[in-house]
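Changelog entry

Holo records now carry the ligand SMILES as an explicit input line rather than a separate metadata file. Below, a converted record for nicotinamide-adenine-dinucleotide, shown in the new format.
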Amino acid sequence: MAGYLEGKNIAITGAGNGIGRATALAAAAEGANVLVADYGVEMDGSDPTSDVADAVVAEITEAGGTALAIAGDVSKMEVGKQIVSTCIDTWGSVDGVVCVAGNLREKMLFNMSEDEWDAVIAVHLKGHFTLYRHALAAMRKQETGGAIVGFTSGAFQGSTAQANYSAAKGGIVSLTKSTALTAASLMMRGGGKPPISANCIAPVARTRMSENVPFGIDMGVAEDVAPMALYLLSDAARHINGQIYTANGPHIAVWSQPVEIRTMDAPNGRWTPQEIEAALPDQLGIEKLTFIEALEQRMAEMEAKKAEEEAAGEGS
Ligand SMILES: NC(=O)c1ccc[n+]([C@@H]2O[C@H](COP(=O)([O-])OP(=O)(O)OC[C@H]3O[C@@H](n4cnc5c(N)ncnc54)[C@H](O)[C@@H]3O)[C@@H](O)[C@H]2O)c1
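Structure line, unchanged by the conversion:
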């Protein structure tokens, strides 16, 4: 029986570890030719090695699949170009790219250095741009189009210790929507061709990156995330565009698309600050940051648990 991605040529960044590796192994097992792109670095960006990408290629070939390794830094334009052109030169097309490479430099914003900011924006946001840009240029020339899959995070809504990561992940959402819009406009002009999709996944999985996640969040494993990426890479999902999907263990969810929810218009053509002060609380209201709601709920749960434990301690 043909595999779910039989004959597709797919490039996956960050494919040497965690979610990228699980996606590469699953795609190859479903018949895709997989370009394993990974710089092979430690979490702090040090000690790049080609061994990490090579090891995943060896795993795939030993299992009877087809794979190639590129051990470059995805924040470099020439590496994005090389990944896409190697797929085309070796296998004839690039049918999908999945951007999973990532790093972390955790600091509260008021303590964050410029280097810590730049390093995270480079690997995540620019590392998506270098791939999206070259993949889209190639896919628009292919009759069969292609699928682009980014990796964001629920942290795009905000983060106390990872403002750099949160900003990069928000940027990836916007970049993915821009790519989806561009793809849709190409398809409109081309009567439905070439079919190109761009979507992103907000995963939650136990990997080296999530080792330090606080609180007892329920987490699946990297292999639970891979099927969602494979679905988005398939022809069956090519009509889906600009979406964000959570994938965590058995749980998959779709995020809303933000829209204006209440408006107000100046009574005399232009608002004064005083008029805004008087009108805004009633007419627009203030939307609560969803993360603050979650944090409040979590703290209430922790306090209730503590009170229960204390009460049990007193009773014994
Ligand atoms: N694990 C989670 O719970 C979680 C949650 C939200 C988002 N994510 C996102 O999912 C993606 C994968 O995360 P993971 O947990 O599998 O991480 P991971 O650390 O296990 O793997 C990341 C891989 O990226 C590679 N990499 C780092 N810098 C690179 C560079 N400049 N060029 C090429 N490769 C580079 C590393 O060598 C590593 O193999 C990341 O984008 C991450 O932000 C993960």
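Spot-checked after migration. The domain at 9-254 is CATH 3.40.50.720 (Rossmann fold). The mean pLDDT is 94.
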